[in-house]
Design goal:
about 260 residues, Endonuclease, Chain A, 5-stranded antiparallel beta sheet, disordered N terminus
Length: about 260
């Protein structure tokens, strides 16, 4: 809290105005504000410097101004994180390892959202790796335009190890003809766990649930590693899971 001191009524050009000496948070010093209206308006007006052509004749009670607390930000060499009061968390990472380490000790809570900006070797499947570190999944849906062979092997590992019990995969219409080997591999991996659905798709979404929480993930990244900057968001909650599940369940495959 800072006190506005030396608050005085003044006269300038036969018009009554009020001059307030107010703490300037940006400059770290006291400066003066003149206002012919109510004193409480000073917080919303630009501060001006002292001018000498005023006749002082009254000094009312001081006004108390509230100083806004600073945001707490933790920084290190490779990544930053900021926690906000509206249940959003913001994270920045440049490799998958940093991304996973950033979220390693984070406890996912219903209603929380985590927003990411990434680069380097971070792809869409990195978010799923983060999720299965927290809990095995009873169900998961994956949507991507394309999927790289390395990531298909990772999906196979999730299924073989019991980290995902049921899985549906949604891919773009170019995938079967442009990535024939990968498409064959994907169908073999998912067989017995769910379906592979081909349609006019460019969405990048993950959604699912386990014993601890439901979730939805939106990202700009396909499930293939590239050096481009990508963004992503994890939201914890049953509502977002059901939103995506209902939509993708209604899609008919080209295959």
């Amino acid at each position: 809290m800072k006190e506005a001191r030396n608050v005085k009524k003044c006269v300038k050009n036969d018009t009554k105005v009020k001059k307030f000496e107010v703490w300037n948070l940006e400059k770290g010093e006291w400066s003066y504000e003149c206002d012919k209206y109510a004193p409480e308006k000073i917080a919303n007006r630009d501060l001006i410097e002292w001018t000498s052509n005023f006749t002082l004749f009254e000094e009312p009670e001081p006004i108390i101004l509230e100083e806004k607390p600073a945001e707490v930000v933790r920084k290190n060499r490779r990544a930053t994180v900021m926690k906000r009061h509206d249940n959003n968390m913001y994270r920045r990472a440049y490799t998958e390892t940093v991304l996973l380490d950033l979220m390693g000790e984070t406890e996912f809570k219903d209603g929380d959202s985590y927003h990411f900006i990434t680069g380097g070797d971070v792809d869409g499947l990195s978010y799923l790796k983060m999720i299965v570190r927290k809990q095995p999944l009873d169900y998961c849906l994956i949507s991507s335009w394309v999927i790289a062979s390395e990531d298909i092997f990772q999906i196979k590992d999730f299924l073989d190890e019991g980290k995902i019990k049921k899985l549906d995969v949604y891919i773009g219409e170019i995938f079967p003809n442009s990535f024939k080997l990968e498409f064959k591999m994907l169908k073999e991996v998912v067989e017995g766990y769910g379906r592979v659905c081909v349609f006019k798709n460019h969405s990048k979404v993950f959604a699912g649930y386990g014993d601890k929480f439901h979730f939805g993930v939106e990202t700009s990244a396909n499930i293939n590693t590239n050096p481009r900057t990508e963004n992503g968001c994890i939201t914890i909650g049953k509502e977002i899971y059901e939103f995506y599940r209902e939509y993708y369940d209604g899609i008919n495959s080209f295959e």
